[in-house]
């Protein structure tokens, strides 16, 4: 995802600025120009970028910066807040309730990943105990019903559609009625998408919406849509009451900035992102962790959710307890590496793990990252219990380092590299100290603390 490059460029611009001895208006402007360029190159709409730059200038007080406050933090915080503002319209999307029938209609251009996303959305909720059903009201694209049928069958989700009927409104109404009778609580209506913004598509969408009265209309958008995103999204919003956005193909090489613009255009929150072709490559979207990942700040809440998914329940409290005491030992790092190897797909987890910014562990280099982790673990296998459980970096003197290198068949510089990695992570993870240990569902509160 090129948004990661955007994150990298912003981080570099901030780094350059904080290297300057005196931060004056010129240095700040250079930094902001650099960031502006990065945003425009990522296809974020010009007006949004300009507004963002103006706002940051208003927020950042040069006198404060001169007074020796942490300049980088102040500006990074301002950028963080501005990016969050673009992505967060300030009102949550309608949330369907389990046990109560809701109709959710999907709209978007052809090829955006709408049909795939309908099934992912259904599958996601089914796993959480909902009773979803899929209705194919796409009578325009030959094969649309077959595709939905195939996906639905694979996920064991009931579906409705027709090979004969050409009126999408009729199918949508029949499907919704039928599944309401069958007590389905999440009735998902897939509509036609077309290549261009044909008037007929919008009229059809309006009619399906009027007839089925959806509780939520989700606009599905391909992350590669580029500069056209703002206008496209606005056109959809003007025709139907778009209430949420799902951005697909975030795993690809799209610039992704168009997606930010589209969100601004619909003034609706992004609720999920698609990260692959498979049914479970679908993630809840949360603005703050996303933006912190983008800025290389790490995503605590995503990481903690993963911990809850992967680390056995009985080991979770112990780990979190240790972290909250600020004891980030080598042993904890070792255990985390073990978890990461278990969690996979590794790239996804790495970009969430605080300290492992996207720049350091780039997507597409998962194999290398995995090999590196394994290498570190082999070296740690040659460490004594005292070394593994210590939080004192001074303990690792020359003779210990040489012993570990010999024991693991590696070079001294490899051990040094591993120790540097430990120090870096320990510094970042030390932020966990004193924090309330979160339970599942309390992750966003933790994330807010970490990102503050
Ligand atoms: P529709 O025309 O909007 O209904 O689009 P489809 O659901 O048929 O998807 C178009 C193509 O995009 C298919 O090949 C999907 O497998 C693919 N696709 C959908 N979502 C994603 C995603 O999140 N990542 C990737 N890599 N491919 C996706």
From TrEMBL:
Gene Ontology molecular function: 7S RNA binding; endoplasmic reticulum signal peptide binding; GTP binding; GTPase activity
Keywords: Cytoplasm, Endoplasmic reticulum, GTP-binding, Hydrolase, Nucleotide-binding, Ribonucleoprotein, RNA-binding, Signal recognition particle
Catalytic activity, reaction form: GTP + H2O = GDP + phosphate + H(+)
One CC-aspect GO term: signal recognition particle, endoplasmic reticulum targeting
GO biological process: SRP-dependent cotranslational protein targeting to membrane, translocation
Compartments, record wording: Cytoplasm; Endoplasmic reticulum
Residue ranges of domain SRP54-type proteins GTP-binding in the record: 269-282
Database matches in PROSITE patterns: SRP54
InterPro entries cross-referenced by the UniProt entry: AAA+_ATPase, P-loop_NTPase, Signal_recog_part_SRP54_M_sf, Signal_recog_particl_SRP54_hlx, Signal_recog_particle_SRP54_M, SRP/SRP_N, SRP54, SRP54_euk
NCBIfam families named among the record's database cross-references: SRP54_euk
Subunit structure: Component of a signal recognition particle (SRP) complex that consists of a 7SL RNA molecule of 300 nucleotides and six protein subunits: SRP72, SRP68, SRP54, SRP19, SRP14 and SRP9.
Role noted for this protein: Component of the signal recognition particle (SRP) complex, a ribonucleoprotein complex that mediates the cotranslational targeting of secretory and membrane proteins to the endoplasmic reticulum (ER). As part of the SRP complex, associates with the SRP receptor (SR) component SRPRA to target secretory proteins to the endoplasmic reticulum membrane. Binds to the signal sequence of presecretory proteins when they emerge from the ribosomes. Displays basal GTPase activity, and stimulates reciprocal GTPase activation of the SR subunit SRPRA.
Family as reported in the entry's similarity comment: Belongs to the GTP-binding SRP family. SRP54 subfamily.
Name under which the protein is recorded: Signal recognition particle 54 kDa protein
Provenance organism: Daucus carota subsp. sativus
């Amino acid at each position: 995802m090129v948004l990661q490059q955007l994150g990298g460029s912003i981080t570099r611009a901030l780094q350059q600025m904080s290297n300057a001895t005196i931060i004056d208006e010129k240095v700040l402007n250079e930094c902001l120009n650099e960031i502006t360029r990065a945003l425009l190159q990522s296809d974020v709409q010009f007006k949004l970028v300009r507004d963002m730059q103006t706002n940051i200038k208003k927020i950042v007080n040069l006198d404060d910066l001169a007074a020796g406050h942490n300049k980088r933090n102040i500006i990074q915080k301002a950028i963080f807040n501005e990016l969050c503002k673009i992505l967060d319209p300030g009102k949550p999307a309608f949330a369907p309730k389990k046990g109560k029938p809701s109709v959710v209609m999907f709209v978007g251009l052809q090829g955006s990943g709408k049909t795939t996303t309908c099934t992912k959305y259904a599958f996601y909720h089914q796993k959480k105990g909902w009773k979803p059903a899929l209705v194919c009201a796409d009578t325009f694209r030959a094969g649309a019903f077959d595709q939905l049928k195939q996906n639905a069958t694979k996920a064991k989700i009931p579906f409705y559609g027709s090979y004969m009927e050409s009126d999408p409104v009729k199918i949508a109404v029949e499907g919704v009625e039928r599944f309401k009778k069958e007590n389905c609580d999440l009735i998902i209506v897939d509509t036609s998408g077309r290549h261009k913004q044909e008037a007929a598509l919008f009229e059809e969408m309006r009619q399906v919406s009027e007839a089925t009265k959806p509780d939520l209309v989700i606009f599905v958008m391909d992350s590669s849509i580029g500069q056209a995103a703002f206008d496209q999204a606005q056109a959809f919003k003007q025709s139907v009451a778009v209430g949420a956005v799902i951005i697909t193909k975030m795993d690809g090489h799209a610039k992704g900035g168009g997606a930010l613009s589209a969100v601004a255009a619909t003034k609706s929150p992004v609720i999920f992102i698609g990260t692959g072709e498979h049914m479970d490559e679908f993630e809840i979207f949360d603005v703050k962790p996303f933006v912190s990942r983008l800025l290389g700040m790490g995503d605590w809440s995503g990481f903690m959710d993963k911990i809850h998914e992967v680390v056995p329940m009985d080991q979770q409290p112990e780990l979190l307890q240790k972290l909250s005491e600020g004891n980030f030992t080598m042993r904890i790092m070792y255990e985390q590496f073990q978890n990461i190897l278990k969690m996979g797909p590794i790239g996804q987890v790495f970009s969430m793990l605080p300290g492992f910014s996207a720049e350091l562990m780039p997507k597409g280099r998962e194999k290398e990252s995995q090999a590196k982790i394994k290498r570190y673990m082999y070296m740690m296998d040659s460490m004594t219990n005292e070394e593994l459980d210590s939080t004192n970096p001074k303990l690792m003197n020359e003779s210990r380092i040489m012993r570990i290198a010999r024991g693991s068949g590696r070079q001294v510089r490899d051990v040094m590299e591993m120790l540097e990695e430990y120090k870096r992570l320990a510094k970042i993870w030390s932020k966990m100290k004193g924090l309330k240990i979160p339970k599942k569902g309390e992750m966003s509160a933790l994330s807010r603390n970490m990102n503050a």
